[in-house]
Amino acid sequence: MYYLITYDISDNKTRKKIEKLLSSYGYRVNYSVFEIESTKNSFDSIIKELKEITKDGDRDIRVYVLNKDVIKNSFTLNSRDIFDGKELYF
C-alpha cells in the first residue's frame, strides 16, 4: 500500500524526529511531505511512532492512503516531462 504523509509541526525538535522517522520508511517529495510504500504492519508501526513523538501537543499530521490507480495516474511536473504523452485531466 502507498501512503502520503504531510505534517505541519512548529516545534523544531519534534519536527526533526518526524523527519528522521519518515525518511527511514519512505522518501521526501516536499519539505514536509513524504511518500511511503509499506505493508499494513509496518505502517501501523509508523503511526504508533508518530503518535508517541507527538503525544505532548503539536499534532498536525495528515495521512492519505493511495491505491495503485492513484499512483499509476500520478506524475511530476517539470520542464522535461510535463506533457510527456499523458493526457491531463483536471
Explain this structure.
The protein is of the alpha+beta class and 90 residues long. The chain has one domain (2-72): Alpha-Beta Plaits, CATH 3.30.70. 37% of the residues lie in helices and 24% in strands. It contains 3 helices and 4 strands. The protein has helices at residues 12-25, 40-53, 68-72, and strands spanning 2-7, 26-30, 33-37, 61-66. The chain has a 4-stranded antiparallel beta sheet with strand order 2-3-1-4. A hairpin with a 2-residue loop joins strand 2 and strand 3 (33-37). Helix 1 (12-25) packs antiparallel against helix 2. The longest helix is centred in the N-terminal third of the chain and has 14 residues, at 12-25. The chain is globular, with a radius of gyration of 15 Å. The model has no long low-confidence stretch (mean pLDDT 84).
Structure at a glance:
The chain has three helices and four strands.
In this structure, how is the largest beta sheet organized?
A: 4 strands, antiparallel
Helix content: 25-40%
Query: What is CATH's topology name?
Result: Alpha-Beta Plaits
Secondary structure category: alpha+beta
> How many domain regions?
1
Strand order of the largest sheet: 2-3-1-4
- The CATH C-level name is Alpha Beta
> How far do the termini sit from each other?
25 Å
User: What do the pLDDT scores average to?
Assistant: 84
Task: Round the Cα radius of gyration to an integer and report it.
Answer: 15 Å
The poorly predicted ranges are none
Oligomeric state of the chains present here: single chain
Proportion in β-strands = 15-25%
Individual helix count? 3
Number of strands: 4
Form type: globular
| CATH architecture assignment | 2-Layer Sandwich
SSE series = EHEEHEH
